[in-house]
Amino acid sequence: MVSIIGAGPVGNYLAAKLAKKGLKVDVYEEHKKIGAPVACTGILTPYIKDLMKIDENYIVNKINETYVYSPDGNQVKIKLKKNYIVDRTLFDSALAKIAKSEGAKYHLGKRLTSLKLGKQHKLKFGKDIFKDSTVVGADGPNTLVGRSAGLFENRKFVAGHQARVKLKEKIDSNVVEFFLDKGNYIGWLVPETNKIARIGVASHKNVNKYFNDLMKRREGKILGWQSGAIPVYDHKANIENNGIYLIGDAATQVKATTYGGIIPGMKAADVLTDVISENKSEGCYQKGVKNTIGKNLWSHLIIRKIMNRFSKEDYNKLIKLCEKKSVKDLIYKYDREYASKLVFKLLINQPKFASFAKCLFRKEII
Questions:
Q1: b/e string for 30-41 if b means 16 or more Cβ within 10 A?
Q2: Which CATH superfamily is domain 2-37+89-155+234-300 in?
Q3: How far is C-alpha 48 from the chain's CA centre?
C-alpha cells in the first residue's frame, strides 16, 4: 500500500505507474478539484512524448519558435521542436483519470495536517487518520511531508509571479518569448492564442517590479493570477527516510534555468516506481535519482549559478552569440530539457561560450 500526498502531474503520474504494477495506491489532494488552483506556466518540451501519450483535449496551443530578448532590447529568433502549452487543470485531471483506470483511489478535499513517523506512518487529515508504511510527498515546494520527515533542510526558493492576460495587441501564437536581465531573473510570455498569453517572471526578489515592467512591454488586461514559490534544485538534498519519499517540487526536482519541473518529476517517478514496486532498500531512490535525472538537474543548476552572476553586458553578449546559425541549429536539435548535452555541443561549436564560466568567481547579483 502506498499513500501519495498531492494530485499534481507528478503525483498522478506516479500513482498510475505504481497502480499498474499491482500496488494499492491512495492519493490525497487538499483541493476539491484536481489541477486547481493553477500555479504553473504549463509549457512542455517535446520530451514529454517519451513519457506519455499526448491527448489533444488538454492542449491549448503548440509553439515552434522562441524570441529571446537581451537587456538592451535586442532579440534572437530560434526555431524549436514542437512545444505544448497545456491547460493544467485538464492535464492534471487526465493524468488522474489514467491513474484511476489502473486502480488508484483518490481522496479529494483531504489536506494533510500532520505526519508522524513510525513502523506504520500516521497521516492525519483533520479528524481523519490513516496509516501506511510507504508515503510519498508530492505536495509541492513547501512540502509538509518533507518537513515532518526531517527532509526539508535548508532549501532555497525563487518567487514566480504570473498572470493570464488578454493583450491589447495581437501576437504570434506560435512564438514563446523570454526576457533576460542581470542576475537571477527571467521573464516569459507563453501564448494561448494570438490575444491571450501567460505572462510571468521569476526571481529571488523584486518580482512585482519586474512583472510590472514586463507588463509595460506587453500591455493587456489581467484575467487571473497563477503565482507561487519555485524551489531551486539541491543535489545534496535528502529525499527519502524510512519509507517516506519526496518527488517533484517537494524534492526540488526543478530545472534551475527555466524553473520547469514536470518532466524531471516524471523521470524521478519512474525511478521511484522501480524502488517501491521491487521493495528496494533505503538509499536506492536517492542513488537512482542522482544517477539519472539528477545529473541533468545538476547541469541546469550550474548554468543557473553562472547566470545569477551575469551583468546586462553578459546577457547582451550571450544573445549576440546565439544569433549564429550554427548555434540556433544546436539549440533546435538538443532543446533546453537536457542542458548538459546542449552546453557540450555549444562549447565545441563556439568556444566563446566558455568565457562565461568566469562569472562563477563573481558575487551573485540579487
A1: beeebbeebbbb
A2: FAD/NAD(P)-binding domain (3.50.50.60)
A3: 12
For the purposes of burial, counting CB atoms within 10 Å of the CB of 281, is it exposed (0-12), middle (13-18) or buried (19 or more)? exposed
| 109 in Cβ contact with 103 (< 8 Å) | no
Distance CA 188, CA 240 (A): 34
How far apart, in whole angstroms, are the C-alpha atoms of residue 94 and residue 83?
18
Give the CA distances from residue 156 to residues 78, 208, 222, 232, 241, in Å, rounded to whole numbers and listed in that order: 31, 19, 29, 6, 21
| Number of neighbours of residue 354 by Cβ within 10 angstroms | 11
- Rounded CA-CA distance 38/246 in Å is 21
Give the largest CA-CA distance in the chain.
62
How far is the C-alpha of 113 from the C-alpha of 17, rounded, in Å? 26
Per-residue pLDDT reduced to its tens digit, 145-184: 999 999 998 899 999 999 999 999 999 999 999 999 988 8
Task: Give the rounded distance of the alpha carbon of 256 from its chain centre.
Answer: 9
Residue position matching grid coordinates 539528477:
294
**Where do the domains of the chain lie?**
2-37+89-155+234-300, 43-87+156-231, 310-361
Contact 79, 328 (CB under 8 A): yes
Name every residue whose Cβ is closer than 8 Å to that of residue 157 and which is 6 or more positions away in sequence.
141, 229, 230, 231, 232
Predicted confidence band at 210 (pLDDT cuts at 50, 70, 90)? Answer: very high
43-87+156-231, what's its fold?
D-Amino Acid Oxidase; Chain A, domain 2 (3.30.9)
Peptide bond into 37 cis (omega under 30): yes
With both helix axes pointing from N to C terminus, report the angle between 339-349 and 293-307 in degrees, rounded to the nearest 10: 60
pLDDT number for residue 366: 67
What is the secondary structure of 100-126 as a DSSP string? HHTT-EEEET----EEE-SSSEEEEET
Q: Show the beta-strand stretches assigned E in 49-206.
A: 59-69, 75-86, 105-108, 114-116, 121-125, 128-132, 135-137, 157-167, 175-180, 185-191, 196-203
DSSP 8-state symbol, 353: G
